[in-house]
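Dear all,

This email documents one entry for the complex benchmark we are building for the journal club exercise. For each entry we list the sequence lines for every component of the assembly. Then comes the predicted three-dimensional structure of the complex as a token string, followed by one or two observations. Please use this as the template for your own entries, and keep the labels exactly as they appear.
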Amino acid sequence: MPFYETQNIQIYNTLSGKKEVFKPIEPGYVGMYVCGPTVYSNVHLGNVRTFMSFDMVFRYLKHLGYKVRYVRNITDAGHLENDADVGEDKITKKARLEQIEPMEVVQRYTVDFHNILNTFNFLPPSIEPTATGHIIEQIELIKSIIDNGYAYVVNGSVYFDVHKFNESYEYGILSKRKLEELIHNTRALDGQSDKKNPQDFALWKRAEPQHIMRWPSPWSDGFPGWHLECTAMSTKYLGDNFDIHGGGMDLKFPHHECEIAQSQASKNQSPVNYWMHANMLHLNGQRMSKSTGNTVNPAELLSGNNSFFSKAYAPSVIRFFNAQSSYRSVLDLTDDGLLASEKGFHRLMDAIHLLDELEAGDTSTFDVQKWRQLCYDAMNDDFNSPILIAHLFEASKQINQVKTGTATLTKTDIALLKTTMHDFTFDVLGLEDQVSSDSGTDKLSGAVELLIKLRQEARANKDFALSDKIRDELAAKGIQLKDGKDGTTFSVN
RNA sequence: GACAAGGUGGCUGAAUGGUUAAGGCUACGGAUUGCAAAUCCGUCAUUUAUGAGUUCGAAUCUCAUCCUUGUCUCCA
């Protein structure tokens, strides 16, 4: 029996508003799509949080033995700035301001995006398609929507007819809005829109003469609408009906709502079985916003080069901080919170290091098998990583107790504990052991061991001035000495 | 304004009807130590924004009030 069949996953489905038992369409296989970044500027930290949460989902499903095809797109065209203006695409606008080629902007920020994600130890998705690479698929999709009568052509542009669609289907099913309310609440935009109704959205926009990014189509030289690419790419690689679609909460309406409508209008079926939405990231209690200046980007957070935080934080500390809250909760990024996470993270890592030094006993005072299943139960419950971490700390406590002699574990249990701790900490949560990954560690530890020996001699001679000097100056350089019953160890912070 | 999600200790953050409301950080007391740090043991929410209701029983369900956030127009 495959391992995943022994675990019963529940996923909170935004579409139903309930936790549901996860049952993939194809046993053993999972198709997952997550809306990727628009590469017209450095990746937003909140966006990183979303991707981090789905990286954990991806990792856990893989850990359970599922074959997962994880598709995360790159939006490099077609993100409309405003339906009512001339239709200038965001990427083009930025490019003109900087006097460089659009694809140069795309290239630069795509590289930046990948660098940031690599730093945070993300697993690469199975497929990372670009919008510009799927223009033909998008044109085909528009044709089928027109053929089915749910879109109309005006002046070379194509619009989705939301009112017509709502006669046969239900527009607003995901965000729980009613079309009538939308009509009532839509403010009248200035200007001469080609749209029949303000709720309609663009599938294809005719390009103005100065618009650089453009492709030929049956309707005009132009570019695809923003919502279209995700439908085209997700269904191309995962099928017309697939398992999981994720993204940030802010994309629920209109983006994901439009994806559902596009799939129903072209293929007559709802595309996704489980909709998952990651909640927002705040900074010091308030939303991040470029206009108010309450924002920090990933590079600034990692380097410490910002006005919000007292120091630079390691990528794994930030990952750990994120995993300590549920992906469905708003997470508030603060210096105090990060400092607390940093301490907790080091505590967990220290316990994992201790696993190699434990001496086995004849009996176990801790039920490792039962504890292990509790870890799985936590993750099975809508990927509840905070509970998982609580269990990892319980194990840390047990490890420290075995070390100090107030608890015992058999050889078998130590091995199982070690495997499980490694599985969850490194494989599922994606944390990295900063010390061991640091090259030159062997030379460093050799030098520190020598200092520890000198300090022991000084202490034996009651030369505490010297022994404290060694200890304090090492501490000032970030190397902490730890005196235990069996001698002194150290850790690098 | 409409719709949606929330409001849990000094901070952070779990728990959706059932005995003493996880875990981390901080703080305090003890063990250990030459002194610290680390580690271990112990203590820290009669109470879940406020008020009312349903129930044998509510953080959890209902209603009202206050507040925060998201979406509705570019904003991750």
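Observations: The first helix of chain A runs from residue 45 to 63. Chain A has a mean pLDDT of 88.
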